[in-house]
Amino acid sequence: MIAKTFQGLENVLAEELTQLGANNIKIGRRMVSYTGDQEMLYRSNFCLRTAIRVLKPIKHFRATSADEVYEAVKAIDWTQYLSNDTTFAVDSVVYSTEFRHSKFVAYKVKDAIVDQFRENTGNRPNIRVSNPDIQLNMHIAEYDCTLSLDSSGESLHRRGYRQEAVEAPLNEVLAAGIILMTGWRGETDFIDPMCGSGTLPIEATLIARNIAPGVFRKNFAFERWADFDAELFDKIYNDDSQEREFLHHAYGYDNNRAAVAIAGQNVKAAGLTNDITIEFQDFKDFTQPAEKSIIVTNPPYGERIKPEDLLGLYKMIGGQFKHQFVDNEAWVLSYREECFDAIGLKSSLKVPLYNGSLECELRKYQMFSGRYNEVRSEGRQIKSEADRRQMAQKRRFKERRAFKQGLDESDEEFKARTERPRRFDREDRPRRADRDGRPRRFDGDERSRRFDRDGRKSGGFKKGGRDLKPRDYKKGNGRRYED
Q1: What b-and-e string marks burial along 217-247, b requiring 16 or more CB atoms within 10 Å of the CB?
Q2: 442 in a domain, yes or no?
Q3: CATH number at residue 316
Q4: Torsion sign over Cα 6, 307, 294, 210
Q5: Do 146 and 270 fall into the same domain?
Q6: Residue by residue, what is the 3-state secondary structure of 254-317?
Q7: Last residue of some domain: 150, 181, 208?
Q8: How does 104-118 read in b/e, with b if 16+ C-beta sit within 10 Å?
């Protein structure tokens, strides 16, 4: 099986699968592969917080052309999965120089299935783009192809509790992944001072109470499969033996009254009103909490939501952390380096994460009373051993990750700063010049004299009219050539 996720959450997903009891877990890019039985497939969809969808591979094969894809797909016995009365759809993801259009690949897969049924029965199953009986996924990496059944259907980030959303809401899978990364499991109060539609407080409370995220879903794609075991799934759905009590509380604040109202509706829909408090409050009015707490927040980046003074907002965040959140830890997900600089605090951990197409960072701030140097001189721990190990990992960030457009940078300036130098085409490549400055041209005879049949340079080099032969370093005084 293959569980898909966001880039940066692969290790978190692998840990979830380990706890679920999966076997042969292997981490890939934006995915984790593993093995398990039918119950594991159902539990994966129902319990995993950081999976976007779960795929069950049907066939792996290599193909160098669209015709080879067609033949490989047509060779599968599709009566195991479909009938003439079944509707299906094909989704494709392609990373290949040979196959450049994902929709064309999807059409080839669809044609192969339809043609097999038409040849054998004289009829064919129908295509339905939305809510089909069977959802297929084709993944191509260069020439390696994997055709899978999509057991999830609608993306697993759509939990089912969200009634409405504010502008630029945080994805539920990403929110859960961030919280799991912090190591928080409900040991303290949880605070999001800019909660928007309430995604972080809701996901945090689900984690604290160990409530499966799939409990709110209306259906999964595997429920329409021919081999669906309703009794087994009912057993999984109704099993609340692992749920626990949340002994602390989660708080969500926002300075937008519409957002507060939406967050309140979502909390109510999730049935968590006893565990979460949503209130109207600007973060600048935030005061030191009486109980030990953690802050996890996702402030505006200046992309879709654009405050009047973005850097001023982040400066205020840093000030509140320093003066009103002493002896606690805070985690901030953001995009621009300028925003993190405006916070004005030294982070103890930086984690690369993608929020949609934006390459963001999740930074941890360990707050303490006193000056940084004084705390270090007293021997108090600022970075945990886990933080040190993670920061020591190489290649955690992309090589060109700093290429983000500055707030005061024009489009032209950004393009000039980040555009790679254009490689010369053959016609544009400058020619060597003779001593008189004219372009030097080589004719065929001269080229043939310079190289022998084996492609090696023939003869010696000429310098000052003398024939020079390569010198054996073992014999001489280090000179490269001898007469």
Answers
A1: beebbbebbeeeeeeebeeeeeeeeeeeebe
A2: no
A3: 3.40.50.150
A4: negative
A5: no
A6: ECCHHHHHHHHHHHHHCCCCCCEEEEECCHHHCCCCCCCEEEEECCCCCCCCCCCCHHHHHHHH
A7: 150
A8: ebbebbbbbbbebbe
* Mean per-residue pLDDT pooled into runs of 10, the chain (483 residues): 94 96 93 95 96 95 91 93 90 85 89 92 87 91 92 93 83 96 95 95 97 94 93 94 94 94 95 96 93 94 71 93 92 91 91 88 86 62 61 53 58 59 46 50 46 47 47 48 45
Domain presence at residue 166: no
Q: Give the pair of three-digit tokens for residue 211.
A: 């409530």
Whether residues 124 and 181 share a domain: the answer is no
22-55 tens-digit pLDDT: 999 999 989 999 999 999 999 999 999 999 999 9
Gap between the Cα atoms of 207 and 312, Å rounded: 33
- 249 and 391 within one domain: yes
Per-residue tokens: 273? 């009103």
> 463 by DSSP, 3-state: which?
strand
Tokens (6 digits) for 261: 């109202």
Q: Is residue 425 in some structural domain? A: no
In a domain, 343, yes or no: yes
- Distance in angstroms (rounded) separating the CA atoms of residues 334 and 156: 24
CA 245 remoteness from chain centre: 31
Strand pairing partners for 137?
91, 148
Tens digits of residue pLDDT in 366-407: 987 766 666 566 566 666 666 656 655 545 555 445 446 666
Q: Verify that 47 and 91 share a domain, yes or no.
A: yes
- Domain boundaries, position 455: 451-482
Q: Are 105 and 92 in contact (CB under 8 A)?
A: yes
Residues 103 and 66 reside in one and the same domain: yes
The total domain count for the chain is 3
Instruction: Report yes or no: 89 and 135 within 8 Å, Cβ to Cβ.
Output: yes
Kindly state whether residues 195 and 294 are assigned to the same domain. Answer: yes
Joined together, the tokens standing for residue 403 give 């290429």
Q: Distance of alpha carbon 304 from its chain centroid, rounded?
A: 19
Same domain, 254 and 307: yes
Same domain, 194 and 133: no
Burial-class residue 77 by CB neighbours within 10 Å (0-12, 13-18, 19+). exposed
